């Protein structure tokens, strides 16, 4: 049985955003404790109440893939078990178009099913300002081909449950020209 300590609610402070937070150490709470319980919020308080807890991971999955590093990226040789494994696989799948546009950047969002298949074609959320439509289409097609080349990815049950349906944002950066010697 969980006993919620009212002292945590009454002694609440405010965080940087001005929202009410329940102060005190985290952990089990008892009515016999001399310190307030945390995180505790009450319907009796005025204004929103947010537990003052720092989460170690952000909710969105974001990845940047650089074209000049495609030779360094390797596909994991085992079922994908972590987010790092997933990102390594997505990087290894990327083959930039031969007709490169130096400085081109394009971002897409997509999600996977538990089976490792992409739910729907990737949706372009950003492309470099001033990029011609043919360049945008070229890179969008290369991104779709990269996902088709590697899908379905092989997830462990744990990773499949964690990322199924969760949006993944990937930014592709064309920077191979930076590595090429300048032409006289």
Provide an overview of this structure.
It is a single chain. Helices cover 22% and strands 15% of the residues. With 184 residues, it is an alpha+beta fold. The chain folds into two domains: 1-54, no CATH class; 61-179, no CATH class. A four-stranded mixed beta sheet has the order 3-6-4-5, covered by helices on one side. It has a two-stranded antiparallel ribbon with strand order 1-2. A hairpin with a 5-residue loop joins strand 1 (13-14) and strand 2. The longest helix has 18 residues, at 133-150. The chain is globular. 23% of the residues are buried.
Instruction: Compute the number of structural domains.
Output: 2
Strand/helix succession:
HEEEHEEHHE
Count of extended strands? 6
Which consecutive residue ranges, at least 5 long each, have pLDDT under 50? 1-26, 51-57
Shape descriptor reads: globular
- In DSSP terms (H or I, runs of 4 or more residues), the helix count works out at 4
Quote the average pLDDT: 76
Beta-strand level of the residues, as a percent range? Answer: 5-15%
Termini gap: 77 Å
**Quaternary organisation of the protein chains:** single chain
Secondary structure elements and their pairing?
Blueprint: H1 6-10, E1 13-14, E2 20-21, E3 61-66, H2 83-93, E4 105-110, E5 123-127, H3 133-150, H4 157-163, E6 168-173
Parallel strand pairs: 3-6
Antiparallel strand pairs: 1-2, 4-5, 4-6
């Amino acid at each position: 049985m969980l006993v919620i300590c009212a002292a945590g609610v009454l002694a609440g402070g405010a965080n940087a955003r001005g929202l009410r937070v329940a102060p005190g150490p985290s952990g089990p709470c008892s009515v016999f404790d001399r310190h307030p319980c945390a995180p505790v919020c009450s319907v009796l308080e005025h204004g929103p109440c947010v537990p003052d807890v720092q989460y170690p991971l952000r909710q969105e999955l974001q990845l940047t893939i650089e074209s000049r590093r495609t030779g360094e990226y390797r596909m994991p040789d085992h079922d994908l078990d972590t987010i790092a494994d997933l990102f390594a696989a997505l990087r290894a799948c990327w083959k930039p178009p031969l007709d490169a546009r130096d400085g081109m950047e394009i971002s897409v969002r997509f999600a996977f099913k538990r089976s490792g298949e992409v739910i729907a074609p990737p949706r372009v959320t950003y492309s470099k300002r001033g990029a011609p439509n043919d360049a945008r289409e070229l890179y969008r097609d290369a991104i779709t081909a990269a996902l088709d080349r590697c899908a379905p990815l092989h997830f462990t049950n744990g990773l499949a449950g964690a990322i199924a349906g969760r949006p993944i944002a990937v930014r592709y950066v064309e920077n191979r020209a930076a590595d090429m010697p300048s032409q006289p």
